[in-house]
Specification:
- By secondary structure, this protein is of the alpha+beta class.
- The chain has 19 helices and 26 strands.
- The strands form seven sheets. Strands 14, 15, 16, 17, 18, 20, 21 and 26 form an eight-stranded antiparallel sheet that branches. It has a five-stranded parallel sheet with strand order 5-4-6-7-19. A four-stranded antiparallel sheet has the order 8-13-9-10, with helices on both faces.
- A hairpin with a 2-residue loop joins strand 14 (321-322) and strand 15 (325-337).
- It is globular and about 75 Å long.
- It starts with 8 loop residues before the first strand and ends in a 27-residue tail after the last helix.
- The structure holds adenosine-5'-diphosphate.
Length: 722
């Protein structure tokens, strides 16, 4: 076993405090199964044909407590205010020791699954579609920064990595750096490093002005359950069929009434329907605070005098079972860059199994956490948890072993895998717009700053019909390669977990390889399109000779043609960022909103500037009410998107929402383009002596260079209603 493993006895309390932040973000959730290596090669074939089937539901309430507490059946909830129920009845108990100590040192490489797809027959909308505007990866600030990094890249010196903030990913990171023969700086470094590895957030270390950081600003906020649900919902409004992989969700407390009314109506219409819902606290992780209900009156809306921020979601009643057990998939995804959008998926992942045979939800079993929740952190405390040393048995297995097993049963694994890829790309497209706003706020163009990348943990459930459903995305997936073992009451020891080491070190090492500042960067064609480079074919640095082929597979821009038409909100975000005004801002003030309306010529006699102001005040007020912790006043991106939809609806009344939005985007982009042309001509005639670089800095935003012709809507109605 690798020499880095030193068994350290750690008191549970120490352990908790060490990982406090990380734990909140789900860092320390799972891991340990002595499963096997990521030997499977499951390549993405045809991601497009995703059709996620109907979902089910049923009811009761489960309350899960912290790790270290035993969980089993949970009590039923008491009544409280809005929902007439109160009090969390939760299980407290003694720490249950982990079942470890099997043959952890042996990695089994016995099975290899080769399901190779061509990846070339993806369906989807072509770029010639009028709705389809390529967000060209023209050179932008992030790219220029990265290029600067390349220029200063090592010449013969090893890549330097600041690991002083790595927290729970430290061991896996150190192993990766060792394999790459790079240089680590455990205490940080006075001079700049090439790469900074943060354990929690972009802000773990605030004084970075160059290099690359493994976290994006705003990722934690963006992936909290409420924000993710909002972002996906916006996409569902525009593309309901494409975004049917996310269960229907309501945001609490603000949509409590709506939720109750809708469910009542559904039940009144068809008495045989008896759905179940899962309630998840906004900032929760590891199953903490989650419970199931079958009736809206069972919602627990208050914590003391405070309203609980949570998401209530349709419960998937018929998941795919293996050995009669429910399981979910943890997939590692690298967001390599926002602009241009670059996404990689790890070919190997983990599957986490429940420890009590699954039954469809009923009033009786709603509180059985070991039946309904797949979290490792919960199930490890069940007496049935199996720490197996085989990749294909036990309570945590490799993804490849599960796919292998399904393939053996005749399941079309290529289809499942391509559906998973589609889900990942679509989810990324949903969250990227807001991430771009965070990015420009923390790293404003023109100011020195690092570039960013991030490994995300996608939690995916397969339905009985083999459709992948997104449960959540973790901004800090656990990168621990040890798991805890109770050696004496209350005293825990970390022991190595070979499977975790194999999967996670692979993901970190290959992420570093892709972020190597000396790495050849993707080429840009004459037409401004990126020529996607397969990870495997990218130039290797001399040090890489002995390394295995990359376990990360590029899926974007590789599948740009199939998914680019979905990037409408990103174009709205480009407008938003452009008119934000003061750099470092995340919210648009009323003057900037007016400027946007004027510049894009969206007001007229039927929609006066007074109406514009009313629209601004109305939407901004409503959104500020939904975000109690918002510090800045003004209109955030989500509110701006709502205003944009409203304006699009008024202007292009006869169209469906998606076409309305496309039409308004084209209108705005064309206005801006024509104005930037005027600006350009003006600046050429007025200032011949002015350097070209200064002239072109004006209004042209590369993201808005859509060649889309100004499309005249058949109906241009300016009445105030939608
Ligand atoms: P947490 O961040 O607390 O782990 P998750 O959203 O991952 O919250 O949910 C915890 C577990 O609950 C999941 O691993 C899964 O087993 C189960 N679960 C979550 N959402 C659903 C759903 N909509 N339908 C069925 N099971 C779900």
């Amino acid at each position: 076993m690798s020499d880095h493993y030193v068994k350290v006895s750690i008191q549970l309390e120490e352990m908790k405090s060490f990982g406090e932040d990380a734990e909140k973000e789900g860092v320390d959730t799972e891991e340990q199964v002595p499963v096997c290596s990521p030997s499977a090669s499951v390549s993405p074939p045809d991601p497009s044909s995703t059709t996620i089937a109907g979902r089910d539901a049923s009811n009761t309430s489960i309350t899960c407590k912290h790790r270290g507490k035993s969980r089993s059946k949970l009590g039923k909830d008491d009544k409280n205010s809005c929902g007439k129920h109160t009090s969390d009845v939760s299980l407290h108990g003694s720490v249950v020791s982990a079942h470890v100590g099997r043959n952890l040192n042996r990695l089994t490489h016995d099975r290899t699954l080769h399901v190779k797809g061509t990846g070339k027959i993806l369906q989807g909308k072509s770029e010639t579609n009028g709705n389809n505007v390529t967000v060209h990866p023209s050179k932008n600030i992030q790219e220029t920064r990265r290029e600067d990094g390349f220029k200063h890249a090592r010449k013969g010196r090893p890549v330097t990595v600041d690991i002083s903030k790595a927290k729970t990913s430290l061991e896996a990171l150190k192993l990766s750096i060792k394999q790459l023969k790079w240089k680590e700086f455990p205490l940080g470094r006075r001079a700049a490093c090439d790469i900074y590895w943060h354990g929690v957030s972009f802000h773990d270390n605030d004084n970075i002005v160059s290099g690359q950081v493994n976290k994006f600003p705003g990722m934690i906020e963006m992936l909290r359950k409420i924000n993710l649900s909002r972002a996906v919902r916006t996409m569902q409004e525009l593309f309901p069929e494409e975004y049917d992989f996310y269960p229907r969700s309501w945001i609490l407390p603000e949509e409590c009434q709506q939720f109750s009314t809708q469910i009542r109506m559904v039940k009144e219409n068809d008495a045989t329907i008896n759905p179940t819902f899962i309630v998840k606290p906004d900032g929760g992780s590891q199953g903490d605070g989650i419970y199931l209900i079958r009736d809206p009156s069972d919602l627990k809306l208050m914590v003391g005098t405070q309203a609980k921020q949570a998401v209530v979601q349709e419960y998937i009643q018929r998941p795919l079972l293996i050995d009669k057990l429910k399981f979910d998939i943890r997939l590692y995804v690298l967001l390599k860059s926002l602009e241009p959008l670059e996404i990689y998926i790890a070919k190997e992942g983990l599957t986490r199994f429940c420890t009590e045979p699954y039954q469809e939800p009923s009033q009786k079993n709603l509180s059985h956490v070991f039946m309904h929740l797949t979290n490792y952190s919960l199930n490890v405390h069940s007496g049935n948890f199996v720490h197996s040393d085989s990749q294909s048995t036990g309570s945590k297995r490799t993804l490849s072993s599960v796919l292998y097993r399904l393939a053996a049963k005749g399941v079309d694994i290529k289809k499942v895998w391509s559906d998973i890829i589609a889900l990942v790309i679509k989810t990324a497209i949903a969250v990227v717009p807001e991430l771009r706003v965070y990015y420009q706020c923390d790293i404003p163009p023109g100011k020195p700053g690092p570039t960013c990348f991030q490994i995300l943990g996608f939690d995916i459930l397969l339905t009985k019909n083999l459709k992948p459903v997104l449960l959540e995305v973790n901004s800090n997936p656990s990168m621990r390669i040890e798991h805890e073992q109770e050696v004496a009451p209350g005293v825990f020891e970390y022991v190595p977990s070979p499977v975790d080491e194999e999967v996670k070190v692979g993901v970190i090492r290959d992420t570093l390889r892709l972020m190597d500042p000396g790495h050849k960067k993707p080429s840009i064609s004459q037409h401004g399109e990126e020529i996607p480079m397969e990870a495997e074919t990218q130039e290797r640095s001399p040090d890489e000779g002995a390394l295995p082929s990359l376990c990360l597979k590029q899926v974007y821009p590789k599948y740009t043609k199939q998914f680019n038409y979905l990037r409408l909100v990103e174009r709205i975000a480009s407008l938003f960022i452009r008119f934000l005004g003061v750099k470092g801002n995340m919210r648009m003030g009323p003057t900037a909103f007016r400027t946007f309306i004027r510049t894009c010529k969206l007001s007229n006699s039927n929609f006066s500037m007074a109406s514009v102001d009313i629209l601004y005040i109305d939407i901004t007020r409503r959104w500020s009410g939904t975000m109690p912790d918002s510090r800045e006043a003004g209109m955030g991106l989500q509110a701006f998107v709502e205003a944009f939809f409203y304006l699009a609806g008024r202007r292009f009344k006869s169209l469906v929402l998606r076409e309305q939005v496309v039409s308004l985007l084209q209108l705005c982009e064309a206005q801006l383009e024509s104005q930037s042309g005027v600006e350009e001509r003006r600046s050429v005639s007025c200032s011949r002596a002015m350097p070209r670089a200064v002239r072109t800095l004006g209004l042209t935003n590369p993201q808005l260079n859509s060649p889309a012709p100004l499309r005249r809507a058949s109906s241009q109605d300016y009445r105030l209603s939608r």
